């Protein structure tokens, strides 16, 4: 199967924070891959902007090193040399006046103008104000902002109001890279492009849903940042909330940005407040020479969670009675992200001693090895009567799509191209962000008032024992965490 590559319009893309980690690991390698795929016009220009004083040649050399390291390409690759011709650089003071006239001089009229804020959220307002004040951005320009979108409801509202002073909502692209993953988008295709699943996609037929995002790494090296956020702010309020919305939302009237986001917003607003017994916080502990979370965070008395598990309920007609179990954590057994939809068991078995039919299960793997797996019951091959066995109908995207599917676009590649196209479907809207914080804030406030320490768990495990009991009391079990 050969994927189609549709070139985008000519564009000027300015990357603020172009010397930073995100630009090196994701943005620049992603743009290069889209260039190699033939999606970037030959006249497009990519302008790096940061505090560092350097010329175009030095920035191109820095970009070449980043693309070679994180994009898997040789420094002397002819296509890399061609791509670097599209790059230029401006040294700029985000909170002053230096460099803005030079940036304005580089911008062209009559092309798509996009500005990627790959900087700390504290600088969003300063950059937005100067883009507008210097006449660099206009009513058709687009800005891309990275998370965190605030750390609570009040700061999220303040951030939205700051951006709204200079840009309309249709110009603001709040990026969540999870929504750019191929499998996440295929979740919508599976639900809404096939008659097979949607009639069963409700509390009558689905027993429960599990969403797992597990990591094997700790927070060493970024402990000071992480200790101010924790697992619920870092993962649940944004990435996992988005996955929950895509699973639970009603079919939109059209695959249109606002239609999709309207339905996601309805899910968030239908979330029931979380009961104290429906959430477990954990913190990985020291193991021999391996430091625990307090050591990695640089605070021996830290009460910030590196793990959280919760039972979530959605109060609407489709999902009343079907729980959603969410868990995410650091230093767990394997690195994996998956969504598992467990259907109810058949109400009656016609088979006697040939094995009890097990529940069907649809597992959607986000990483690693993106794909989908549907478990069904069949007769075990061979003579000797009717013996039932559960088997997977497996679809690995790399296998199913052939050689062209093995190098699927990274989430950032897809999302940046969507910005150039002006398609906001896979980006969060301001009211969506605020609704997510409105649900999350009382949970965090209860933790801070209770002053309870998170449950300890061993590095390399599946999390704290209390999280297992969260499922066991409902006569259910977490899926095994494995790569």
UniProtKB/TrEMBL annotation:
<dbReference type="Pfam" id="PF02781">
    <property type="entry name" value="G6PD_C"/>
</dbReference>
<dbReference type="GO" id="GO:0006006">
    <property type="term" value="P:glucose metabolic process"/>
</dbReference>
<dbReference type="GO" id="GO:0004345">
    <property type="term" value="F:glucose-6-phosphate dehydrogenase activity"/>
</dbReference>
<dbReference type="GO" id="GO:0009051">
    <property type="term" value="P:pentose-phosphate shunt, oxidative branch"/>
</dbReference>
<dbReference type="InterPro" id="IPR019796">
    <property type="entry name" value="G6P_DH_AS"/>
</dbReference>
<feature type="binding site">
    <location>
        <position position="234"/>
    </location>
    <ligand>
        <name>substrate</name>
    </ligand>
</feature>
<comment type="pathway">
    <text>Carbohydrate degradation; pentose phosphate pathway; D-ribulose 5-phosphate from D-glucose 6-phosphate (oxidative stage): step 1/3.</text>
</comment>
<comment type="similarity">
    <text>Belongs to the glucose-6-phosphate dehydrogenase family.</text>
</comment>
<feature type="binding site">
    <location>
        <position position="51"/>
    </location>
    <ligand>
        <name>NADP(+)</name>
    </ligand>
</feature>
<keyword id="KW-0560">Oxidoreductase</keyword>
<keyword id="KW-0119">Carbohydrate metabolism</keyword>
<feature type="binding site">
    <location>
        <position position="330"/>
    </location>
    <ligand>
        <name>substrate</name>
    </ligand>
</feature>
<feature type="binding site">
    <location>
        <position position="215"/>
    </location>
    <ligand>
        <name>substrate</name>
    </ligand>
</feature>
<protein>
    <recommendedName>
        <fullName>Glucose-6-phosphate 1-dehydrogenase</fullName>
        <ecNumber>1.1.1.49</ecNumber>
    </recommendedName>
</protein>
<dbReference type="InterPro" id="IPR022674">
    <property type="entry name" value="G6P_DH_NAD-bd"/>
</dbReference>
<feature type="domain" description="Glucose-6-phosphate dehydrogenase C-terminal">
    <location>
        <begin position="188"/>
        <end position="479"/>
    </location>
</feature>
<keyword id="KW-0521">NADP</keyword>
<feature type="domain" description="Glucose-6-phosphate dehydrogenase NAD-binding">
    <location>
        <begin position="14"/>
        <end position="186"/>
    </location>
</feature>
<feature type="binding site">
    <location>
        <position position="181"/>
    </location>
    <ligand>
        <name>substrate</name>
    </ligand>
</feature>
<feature type="active site" description="Proton acceptor">
    <location>
        <position position="239"/>
    </location>
</feature>
<dbReference type="InterPro" id="IPR022675">
    <property type="entry name" value="G6P_DH_C"/>
</dbReference>
<keyword id="KW-0313">Glucose metabolism</keyword>
<dbReference type="GO" id="GO:0050661">
    <property type="term" value="F:NADP binding"/>
</dbReference>
<feature type="binding site">
    <location>
        <position position="177"/>
    </location>
    <ligand>
        <name>substrate</name>
    </ligand>
</feature>
<comment type="function">
    <text>Catalyzes the oxidation of glucose 6-phosphate to 6-phosphogluconolactone.</text>
</comment>
<feature type="binding site">
    <location>
        <position position="147"/>
    </location>
    <ligand>
        <name>NADP(+)</name>
    </ligand>
</feature>
<dbReference type="InterPro" id="IPR036291">
    <property type="entry name" value="NAD(P)-bd_dom_sf"/>
</dbReference>
<dbReference type="GO" id="GO:0005829">
    <property type="term" value="C:cytosol"/>
</dbReference>
<dbReference type="InterPro" id="IPR001282">
    <property type="entry name" value="G6P_DH"/>
</dbReference>
<dbReference type="Pfam" id="PF00479">
    <property type="entry name" value="G6PD_N"/>
</dbReference>
């Amino acid at each position: 199967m050969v994927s189609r590559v549709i070139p985008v319009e000519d564009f000027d893309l300015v990357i603020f924070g172009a010397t930073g980690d995100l630009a090196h690991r994701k943005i620049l390698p992603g743009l290069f891959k889209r260039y190699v795929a033939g999606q970037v016009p030959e006249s497009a220009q990519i302008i790096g902007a940061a505090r560092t004083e350097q010329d175009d040649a030095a920035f191109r050399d820095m970009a070449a090193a980043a693309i070679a390291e994180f994009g898997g390409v040789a420094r002397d690759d002819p296509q890399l040399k061609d791509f670097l011709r599209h790059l230029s650089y401006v040294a700029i003071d985000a909170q002053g006046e230096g460099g803005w006239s030079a940036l304005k001089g580089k911008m062209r009229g009559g092309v798509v103008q996009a500005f990627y804020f790959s900087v700390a959220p504290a600088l969003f307002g300063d950059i937005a104000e100067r883009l507008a004040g210097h006449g660099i951005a206009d009513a058709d320009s687009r800005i891309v902002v990275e998370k965190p979108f605030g750390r609570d409801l009040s700061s999220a509202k303040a951030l939205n109001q700051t951006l709204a002073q200079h840009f309309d909502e249709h110009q603001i692209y709040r990026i969540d890279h999870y929504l750019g993953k191929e499998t996440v988008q295929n979740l919508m295709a599976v639900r809404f492009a096939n008659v097979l699943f949607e009639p069963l996609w409700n509390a009558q037929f689905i027993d429960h849903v599990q969403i797992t995002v597990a990591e094997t790494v700790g927070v060493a090296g970024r402990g000071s940042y992480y200790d101010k956020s924790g697992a619920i702010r870092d993962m649940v309020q944004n990435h996992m909330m988005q996955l929950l919305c895509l699973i639970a939302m009603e079919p939109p009237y059209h695959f249109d940005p606002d239609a999709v986001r309207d339905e996601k917003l309805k899910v968030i607003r239908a979330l029931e407040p979380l009961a104290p017994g429906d959430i477990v916080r954990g913190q990985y502990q020291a193991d021999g020479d391996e430091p625990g979370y307090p050591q990695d965070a640089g605070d021996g008395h830290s009460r910030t969670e590196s793990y959280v598990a919760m039972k979530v309920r959605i109060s609407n007609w489709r999902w009343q009675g079907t729980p959603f179990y969410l868990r995410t954590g650091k230093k767990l057994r394997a690195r994996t992200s998956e969504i598992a939809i467990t259907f109810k068991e058949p109400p009656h078995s016609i088979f006697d001693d040939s094995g009890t039919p097990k529940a069907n299960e649809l597992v959607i793997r986000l990483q690693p090895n993106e794909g989908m797996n549907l478990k069904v019951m069949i007769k075990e091959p061979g003579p000797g009567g009717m013996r039932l066995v559960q088997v997977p109908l497996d679809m690995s995207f790399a296998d199913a799509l052939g050689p062209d599917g093995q190098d699927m676009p990274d989430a950032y590649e897809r999302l940046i191209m969507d910005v150039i196209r002006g398609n906001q479907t896979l980006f969060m809207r301001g009211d969506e962000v605020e609704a997510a914080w409105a649900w999350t804030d009382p949970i965090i406030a209860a933790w801070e008032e209770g002053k309870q320490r998170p449950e300890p768990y061993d590095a390399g495990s599946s999390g704290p024992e209390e999280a297992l009991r969260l499922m066991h009391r409902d006569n259910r079990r977490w899926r095994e965490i494995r790569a």
